[in-house]
Amino acid sequence: MGRPDPPDGGTSSRRTLPLPSLISAGGGLLLLVAIAQGVRAFTTGEEALVVLLDFVFVAAPAVAFVYTGLWMPRSAIARTRYPRILAWSFGGIAVMYGFILLRDVHPGVSAEWTVGTQAIALTIGSIGGLLIGVEETKATIRTEQLEERTRELEANERELTRHNEQLERFASVISHDLRNPLNVAQGHLALAREERDDERLRTVADAHDRMEALIEDVLELARQGEGISDTEPVGLAGLADRCWETVATAEATLSVETAATVRADSDRLRQLLENLFGNAIEHGGSNVTVTVGAIEGDSGDGDSNGDSDSDGDGFYVADDGPGIPEGVRESVFESGYSTDDDGTGFGLAIVAEIVGAHGWEIRATESAEGGARFEITGVTVDADGE
């Protein structure tokens, strides 16, 4: 939304006329005129219905002006726009009196300037002009807010484009300027190890492997940060089983407790699950049990695998490993954060990027067994399955 107009219209250095007070005062004066005219007409013996109608037609705009003067300062309309609303009111009165005047000067039409005639012109012209002025001002404000919002969106789009271009350049540097020298080093190391192989060369080989893993993870992180435009229904159970087959699970166990279908990019959701499974095995041990389940609705009551205070539909991946200390649960999604000397620290960062690209949210908490539990919410879930 655009920013609202400042209360003083941005002219705090000079005082503006208290138009709302003048409008209310004018309405009050007009109301006194209506009362005086009604009393005079009644005492002179005019017909009661005529007196009543004349009073109503004069009092109606009076009440409208009094109300408008009191309403304006409490509305979202800036003071700088008050004169335009007042101009519309006076313009409406001028149009109606001009219409009566034209009737009066027309040779074939006679018009009497009675109190009733003037009262009708005053009522229709003032109230009509006032309503047009208020609605026109509101429409102008909405248009300006929409234009400002459009400018903000265009600026965000330009920033996003620039960010994506930076990611592409970054990925290019990683894939060429770093990987090519690494390949050369690995080739020379392989030749050296054919002649002799000792602890030092094995240490170099391990360092090369770690550099290769870092390059792969950084490239994956750059790719996963791109936005997602197309999604499709993906069955959690089937995808979880396929992901489990590709992860080095050792003696670990997978338990899928949902038949839900979610709307997602299937390739990226697969990467998300594989990274969470790998994280569970890396930190929970070779015999860890990993559970995938659904989070339904605004649950503060939890589900079958631990308590949850997450809002909205989603799913979770939990394990019965050592868990994550409460003080570092937000830090685990940062790039490069790892408690394992052999880890790259990008696994959960990639998960967070995939979640963000979908417009979801993720939080780390504790599972019912005391292990780690990752909750992904804001997901479109069909609890009935595929």
List key phrases describing it.
single chain, 386 residues, alpha+beta, Heat Shock Protein 90, 3 domains, three-stranded antiparallel beta sheet, 8 strands, elongated, disordered N terminus
Please give the share of residues in helix. Answer: 55-70%
Morphology call: elongated
Mean pLDDT: 77
User: pLDDT under 50 segments (min length 5)?
Assistant: 1-14, 299-311
Q: What structural category arises from helix and sheet content?
A: alpha+beta
Number of domains: 3
Describe it for me?
This protein folds into 3 domains: 19-156, no CATH class; 167-224; 232-382, Heat Shock Protein 90, CATH 3.30.565. Helices cover 58% and strands 10% of the residues. By secondary structure, it is α+β, with helices and mostly antiparallel strands.
Quick summary of this structure?
Helix content is 58%, strand content 10%.
SSE layout and pairing:
Elements: H1 19-43, H2 48-71, H3 82-105, H4 115-195, H5 199-224, E1 232-235, H6 236-246, E2 253-256, E3 261-264, H7 266-284, E4 289-295, E5 314-319, H8 347-358, E6 361-366, E7 372-377, E8 381-382
Parallel strand pairs: 2-4
Antiparallel strand pairs: 1-3, 3-8, 4-5, 5-7, 6-7
Helix pairs in contact: 1-2, 2-4, 3-4, 4-5, 5-8, 6-7, 7-8
